[in-house]
Predict the 3D structure of the following.
Amino acid sequence: MKRGVSGRDLNAFSAEDGGLPQAKYLLHHWTELGLTDVQLTNYSVLLSQAGSSPSIITDKVSGQCFLPNGKPCDARSRNPASEDQLSSFAAYSAVGRLEAEVVDVQYGSMKKPDPSQHNEQWHQKNCTIETRTGTFSVHGKLLG
């Protein structure tokens, strides 16, 4: 961020103001930085609530399943290995099952991992994602 705009300036959004002051703050600074097509649009977001069973990630090779926090779960029953584990809440995940090749989201290119390299990184990429809660969204870059 430039010219005095920092994360500290953007306080947590509150239900009372809907984040309008923070949005106006960003609009002002982006315009000040030279962006010419900056628009402020109002919209509502509906978030699903966490279900009784958490989303899981299953390694297709070994069949081992993991919770979103990385802890293992029982692949046969799809339940957490321990009752004291809290399930993660994926607010943007749709109910259903997703199976796909690995996509490098930074460049949008398809990328298949080398099956001869059965290490932790390969297993994290070569997996199925099963989710039981609201739109599946991937952000970030897969390292490889």
